[in-house]
Write a structure and sequence with these properties.
GO terms for molecular function: DNA binding. Keywords: DNA-binding. It comes from Bifidobacterium thermophilum RBL67. By secondary structure, the chain is mainly α. The relative contact order is 0.15.
C-alpha cells in the first residue's frame, strides 16, 4: 500500500463515495436513517460509524467492506470486544 492509501480515513472514504454518486449529505443521511449531522461528523472524522452502519454504507455504495476500511474494522472490533464505544 502506498503512502497516499494509508492516509485515507473512513470519513474521507465516505465523503469520496458520496460525492462520486452526486449525493448530498442530506440524501445519504436519509438513506442511512441518520441525521445529516451524524454523517457530517463521520466525514470529518469526529466520530466513526459502528460496524452495522459501516456494513450498510458499504452495501449502499456497492463496495467490499475489506476494501473500504480493513484497518478501521479491526480497530472497531477490538473496541467492541472490550465493551468500549468509538462514537
Amino acid at each position: 500500500m502506498n503512502q497516499e492509501q494509508t492516509n485515507i480515513t473512513t470519513g474521507k472514504q465516505i465523503r469520496h463515495l458520496r460525492t462520486q454518486l452526486g449525493m448530498t449529505q442530506e440524501e445519504l443521511a436519509g438513506e442511512l436513517n441518520v441525521t445529516r449531522q451524524a454523517l457530517s461528523n463521520w466525514e470529518r472524522d469526529v466520530n466513526e460509524p459502528d460496524l452495522n452502519m459501516l456494513k450498510k454504507i458499504c452495501f449502499l455504495f456497492g463496495v467490499n467492506m475489506d476494501d473500504f476500511a480493513k484497518e478501521v474494522i479491526t480497530k472497531m472490533e477490538t473496541y467492541e470486544k472490550k465493551g468500549e464505544t468509538t462514537i
